[in-house]
Amino acid sequence: MKLTVKSVSRVALVSTLVAAATGAAVLVASPASAATTLGASAAERGRYFGTAVAANKLSDSTYVGILNREFDMVTAENEMKIDALEPQQNQFNYANADRIVNHARNQGKKVRGHTLAWHSQQPGWMQNMSGSALRSAMLNHVTKVATYYRGKIHSWDVVNEAFADGSSGGRRDSNLQRTGNDWIEAAFRAARAADPGAKLCYNDYNTDNWSHAKTQGVYRMVQDFKTRGVPIDCVGFQAHFNSGNPVPSNYHTTLQNFANLGVDVQITELDIEGSGSTQAQQYQGVVQACLAVSRCNGVTVWGIRDSDSWRASGTPLLFDGSGNKKAAYNSVLSALNNGSSTNPTTPTSPTTPTNPGGGCTATYSAGQSWSDRFNGQVTVSGASNWIVTVTTSSPQKIIATWNTAASWDSSGNVMTARPNGNGDVFGFTVQHGGNTSRPTVSCRVG
Ligand code: G3I
C-alpha cells in the first residue's frame, strides 16, 4: 500500500487516513486550524462572507441559527429599499430595516446597505415624480437614510442597476436618468456628505463578463468618476447566475480590471441556479476569483436556504430547504480555506511603484486591453508639480493620453507627462504591435 502526503501550506497539519476511490488508502493532510464556517474562513483571508436577510425570517430558529453561525456581513434583502424606508414622502419607516441592522450588530456582524437610489422599488409618490422635484426627493432620501445609519454601514449600494442590458453600454432609461446624466454622481456626493465612513458602491447585474457592453459601460463610468474625483469606493457585482448566464471564465479579469481603477470590488448578491457538483464548481470559481483580487472585499450570497431565495425553484443557494449544507457550501468553504490571503501575480495586477525617494511616486496599473492595444493608468502622489516619465518598448507606441499634458522624445517610446490641472491620475493607450510588456514609469518633481 502506497502512502502519499498532499502538502498543505499551513503550519499545523493533522493527517487522516481515508479510502481513495480506487480502494487504496491515501494519507491526506488537512490543516488543523481550518476554519469551519464561511465567515471565519473569509476573515482569515481578510474578507467577509455575507448573506441577504429578510426581517420576517428573524423568528425562524433554523434560519437564525445558520445566519449567526456562518455569516459576518448582512444585507437587508428588501427592507432598506426606497419603498420600504420612505413609503410617504419625507416620512421614514426604519422599523424592519432596524430589526436586521440591530440583529447583525448585536451578533458582531457588519452591514451592507442596499440601496439608496434605484429606478425600481420606488414608492408610488416617487414613481410619479420627474425633473428637479424628483432629483431633490432622491437626494433627500439619500441624505436622510445615510445620515440615519451613519457609522453603522460598512458599504452602501448608493446606486443600483443604472445601466441598460444589451449592446448599448449606456444608461438605463428611468425617471431618475431623465433628471440628468449627473444623477448618479449627485447621489454619491450626497451619500459621502451624510456618511463619510461608509464605502460607497455602484451595484449592478450582468456586469460579470468583461467583454459585455454593460460591463464596459460601468467600467467607463467608474473610470470617469475616479478621474473627476466623484466619491466612489467600490463596485458591487450582483452575480446572479444560471445555465443561460453562467459564471464567465474571465470573471477574475473583470474584478481585477475594476480594482485597477482604484476601487474595491464586492460580490454582492451571489446565487447560482443548479445542483450538485456543477453548482459547487461554479461557486468555487466565484470565490477563487474574489480571493485572487486583493481589492475584492468579500462575497455576499442572496439568501440562506434555497427556500429563502427570490428564485427558490432554481435551488441557487448554499443550504437546502431544511438548512443542510449543500455540496456548494463545502466547495465554498474549501475554496476559502485553501485560498491565499494575498493577491497572486496576474497579468493585469497593478502597482509598479518607482522612485519613492525622488519626492513623488508614480504607480502604474493596467487597464483595458484589446488585440492590438491596451490602456494604462498612472497615479501620482507626493507632489503636485510632478513629471512622470513613461517608457514603452518598441514597437509599442502611445497613441492617446488623457488627463495629462504629454510630450515625446524622438524615439516615440519615452513620454514625459505633466499635470494638466485635472488631478494626479492620468491614462494612456498603447498600440502594442505584438509586444504586450508593461510600460515602466518614474516620477520626479519639476
Ligand atoms: O412581503 C410582500 C407580501 O406581503 C405580499 O403578499 C407579496 C405579494 O405581492 O409581496 C411581498 O413582497 C415581495 C418581496 O420581494 C418580499 O418577498 C415583493 O412583492 C417582491 O417584489 C420582492 O422581490 C424582491 C425583489 O428584489 C424586488 O425588490 C426580492 O425579494 C429580492 O430578492 C430582490 O432582490 C434584488 C436586489 O434588490 C437587486 N438585484 C436583484 C435582486 C433579485 O431580483
From TrEMBL:
EC number of the protein: 3.2.1.8
Presence of the UniProt keyword Signal in the record: yes
Substrates-to-products reaction catalysed: Endohydrolysis of (1->4)-beta-D-xylosidic linkages in xylans
SMART domains reported for this sequence: CBD_II, Glyco_10
Keywords on record: Carbohydrate metabolism, Glycosidase, Hydrolase, Polysaccharide degradation, Signal, Xylan degradation
Gene3D superfamilies for this protein: 2.60.40.290, Glycosidases
Family annotation (InterPro entries): CBD2 (IPR001919), CBM2/CBM3_carb-bd_dom_sf (IPR008965), CBM2_carb-bd_dom_sf (IPR012291), GH (IPR017853), GH10 (IPR044846), GH10_AS (IPR031158), GH10_dom (IPR001000)
Enzyme class: hydrolase
The protein, known as: Beta-xylanase
Organism: Saccharothrix lopnurensis
